[in-house]
Design a protein that fits this description.
single chain, alpha+beta, seven-stranded antiparallel beta sheet
């Protein structure tokens, strides 16, 4: 696709739409990367809208002049989805950060795209309802979470972001505004375009507002840390919880190696050092007796499966420290190496231990450090490939080899490429090999219907027509 570069004339037109104080031209390096910093590309200009009308006018102008547009929130993505590969306009949504309506009668809250998850939590802190999805990066925007269908640490019991988006307002590539979904609980009225947009990584439309589903605040929450001899031993107990009819709110796993990185990063001591691997379990609900009963049964099952003495979080400070460690594992690992890359494959829960064994084999065979942790309750593994002493060129080769192997492991075991971080630009070269050309062709037709000129977030998720010449695109994975 041939795109036009932003000119002084275009900057003047954009300035008329939003004002000079919300146009950054030329764009600064703040806009050339995401959290991982493995993909870098600078947009020509960054524009900060504050309402739907401004977004619609920006999109209409960009579409008319064939200028690519990349939507951006707080840049917490890991796959380069919010990096402007074709330059053009970075649509910075961070100033669209208002709560528009709190509606307890319908159990909803309506917010703008750029509101951060922690701001939603703070707004609801004195109210009887919560927004339940809990990604580790609380400074991520809700629009970014919706764009990748983020899951987080309560997905075992409550599901992912998509399950809590009742409705969205979107601006299409040509500036058309649409309301998809609403406050209704049920809808069987044709194709569900809302659910198509959620998880589309900004390639189909710009989400500007979201109607989010709330749930009653649990009256009791119990956290417990379970040490095991190894991560594999910890993981193997998870199916036993579920088989017994126990569904914790969250089940996180990590190892002593990762905790060691966090201690060095945070300059703090973790609450326990008895385990080689850990499960962090949360139970919540409205019936204290029922929650307590599930908790006690889970401890009994874990003990019978080889768990060491549980670490009960009896104080708020202790619980906060453990969750701080879990939430900061990514940044702690990132601090140990000059550069790293990440794979967040998702596999059937019963297969996590087998997958981790293969991850360790790849780590040894290919001589590359791969710390990992993740969501044991929903099969989502976060695996980090560290550069360490490799040169940048050698590391790029190593990353490609390892990623292919990890995706082959996921494919063989009935898994998917990503559980919540998305495909973005960094993993787009592997998409067709994993899912096949028939799926890519269908997605390409959907993209054409929403965005005929392909100006919205080009080069992301899957290879569109005419873009099959990226040299880093691998051959098909084995069946």
């Amino acid at each position: 696709m041939a795109y036009n570069k932003v000119t002084e004339v275009d900057v003047a037109a954009l300035t008329k739409i939003v004002g000079a104080d919300r146009v950054i031209y030329p764009a600064t390096v703040h806009y050339d990367h995401d959290q991982m910093k493995s993909v870098r590309s600078l947009p020509d200009v960054a524009v900060q809208p504050i309402n739907d009308n401004e977004v619609a006018r920006i999109m209409a102008y960009a579409n008319e002049h064939t200028i690519p547009v990349t939507v951006r929130g707080n840049a917490t993505g890991l796959m380069g989805a919010n990096v402007a590969i074709e330059h053009g306009i970075a649509l910075d949504m961070i100033k669209m950060n208002q709560v528009l309506e709190y509606d307890p009668e319908n159990l909803t809250i309506t917010v703008q795209n750029g509101l951060r998850i922690r701001d939603i939590n703070e707004y609801l802190a004195d109210k009887p309802f919560i927004y339940v999805p809990a990604p580790a990066m609380k400074w991520a925007t809700i629009g970014g979470n919706a764009s990748t269908n983020a899951g987080g640490m309560r997905a075992v019991k409550y599901g992912t972001t998509r399950d809590y988006v009742r409705g969205i307002k979107v601006i299409l590539a040509d500036g058309t505004s649409l309301q998809l979904g609403g406050k209704t609980v049920k809808n069987s009225s044709g194709y569900d375009l809302k659910d198509l947009i959620v998880g589309s990584e900004g390639t189909l439309a710009v989400i500007t507002e979201l109607i989010l589903r709330l749930i009653p605040r649990p009256v009791i929450t119990i956290d417990v840390l379970l040490p095991f001899d190894s991560v594999e031993a910890a993981i193997k107990v998870v199916p036993k919880f579920l088989e017994a009819g126990i569904v914790p709110t969250g089940i996180e796993f990590f190892g002593s190696r990762e905790i060691g990185y966090w201690e060095k990063y945070a300059k703090k001591q973790f609450v326990d050092h008895s385990g080689g691997g850990y499960l962090l379990l949360t139970f919540d609900g409205s019936n204290k007796d029922a929650v307590q009963a599930d908790y006690e049964r889970a401890l009994e099952i874990a003990k019978n499966a080889g768990a060491k003495a549980p670490v009960l979080m009896n104080t708020a400070d202790q619980a906060a420290l453990v969750w701080e460690a879990r939430n900061q594992l990514l940044t702690a690992i990132q601090a140990t190496t000059p550069a790293m890359d990440e794979v967040d494959i998702v596999v059937p829960r019963s297969k996590i231990a087998a997958v981790l064994e293969q991850v360790h084999q790849i780590e040894e065979t290919d001589q590359v450090r791969m710390p990992n942790f993740g969501h044991a309750g929903d099969g989502n593994l976060h695996i980090y490939i560290c550069q360490d002493n490799y040169s940048a060129a050698d590391f790029a080769v190593k990353v490609d080899i390892v990623i292919r192997k990890l995706y082959q492991v996921a494919k063989n075991i009935g898994g998917e490429m990503s559980g919540e971080h998305g495909i973005g630009y960094a993993r787009e070269p592997y998409f067709a090999a994993f899912y096949g050309t028939d799926r890519v062709a269908l997605l390409d037709r959907i993209k054409d219907a929403f965005d005929p000129k392909h100006i919205l977030n080009p080069d992301k998720v899957f290879p569109v027509k005419g873009e099959n010449d990226r040299p880093d695109r691998p051959l098909e994975l084995k069946k």
